[in-house]
Amino acid sequence: MRIFSIGDTHLSFGCPKPKPMHVFGENWRNHYDQIKNNWQQIAKPDDLLIIAGDISWALRFNEVLPDLEWIHSELPGKKILIFGNHDFWFKSKTKLNKTLETYDSIRYLDATYIIENDIAVIGGRGWISPGSLASKDMFDKLPNNREFKEPFTDNDMKIYTREYNNLKKAFEELKNSNQSYKTLILALHYPAFNPQQEDSLFTSLIKEYNVNIFINGHLHGQSIDLYGFTGIKENCAYHLVSADSINFTPKQIL
After folding, report:
1. Average pLDDT across the chain, whole number
2. pLDDT tens-digit profile of 48-101?
3. How does strand 78-82 pair with strand 106-109?
4. Out of 107, 195, 205, 250, which could bridge 4 as a Cys pair, Cβ 3.0 to 4.6 Å?
5. 171: phi then psi, degrees, rounded to nearest 5
6. CA–CA separation, 39 and 52 (whole Å)
7. Where does the pLDDT of residue 140 fall: very low under 50, low under 70, confident under 90, or very high at 90 and above?
8. For residue 31, how many other CB atoms are within 10 A of its CB?
């Protein structure tokens, strides 16, 4: 089993008004076809694809169903979904669990873990870390030319702490399960640290539980060069996998 990852698929097949992503740059034009074609060229039936958040622009659950159908039928192999800051459709685990009985190539992680083929994966949304701008978006400029320059807020701190506590619980559950694994992956939508690459509660989890591989999406445009990090940091391999940072081609992680 090989493991690949891509973030920020930003699908909108079921939205009342589909979102044309090329407003963020021509490289995004027909990005869903780019992702599908690139993945189909490299994927094998037993490969695992981690989709690291911002799966869909859908606001309601019925609107995301065509996107889940596309992921299930057009992207070969097994898929794990991580939810991002734009996944407003994800409000009911009951509805999603029922739907995934049909789309059985798809699973999801929401501050939870799975173990497969000696590989443990813990996944969750995460959040921005202190020292970041307020969490609005990481495109350098939105289509209406608005830019977000607000500082990290008290509300950000509440969410950041809550996300950490939820992930900490997942790590403890994995530890106490006494299940064996050779590689531990943490997959979040958000980066593990702020733009200055300072330590955070998330990096403390990486160190405490000896995470081998960290995956994140979320960063786009100029933010990829300014804030993105791919490389080795204190024995953990970090991978930025937002779709435009990897040319809309799922990146092999293992």
Report:
1. 93
2. 999 999 999 999 999 999 999 999 999 999 999 999 999 999 999 999 999 999
3. parallel
4. 250
5. -60, -40
6. 15
7. very low
8. 21
| The two three-digit tokens of residue 173, written as one number | 């559950």
Q: Domain range spanning residue 114?
A: 3-252
State phi, psi for 41 to the nearest 5 degrees. Answer: -75, -25
How far is C-alpha 196 from the chain's CA centre? 21
Cβ atoms of residues 108 and 82 within 8 Å: yes
The CA angle 185-180-123, to the nearest 5 degrees, is: 25
Per DSSP bridges, beta strands 213-216 and 236-240 are parallel
Q: Tokens 């799966």 correspond to what residue?
A: 55
% residues pLDDT > 70 (the chain):
93
CATH of the domain at 247: 3.60.21.10
Q: Specify whether the CB–CB gap between 170 and 124 falls below 8 A.
A: yes
- Give phi and psi for 114, each to the nearest 5: -135, 160
Name which of 249, 139, 130, 146 is nearest 201 in CA terms. Answer: 130
Q: Is 58 exposed, middle or buried, given 0-12, 13-18 or 19+ CB atoms closer than 10 A?
A: buried
C-alpha–C-alpha distance, residues 222 and 192, integer Å: 18
Whole-structure pTM value: 0.94
Number of domains in the chain: 1
Give the span between the Cα atoms of 166 and 126, in whole angstroms.
9
Provide the b/e sequence for 166-179 (b: ≥16 CB within 10 Å). ebbebbeebeeeee
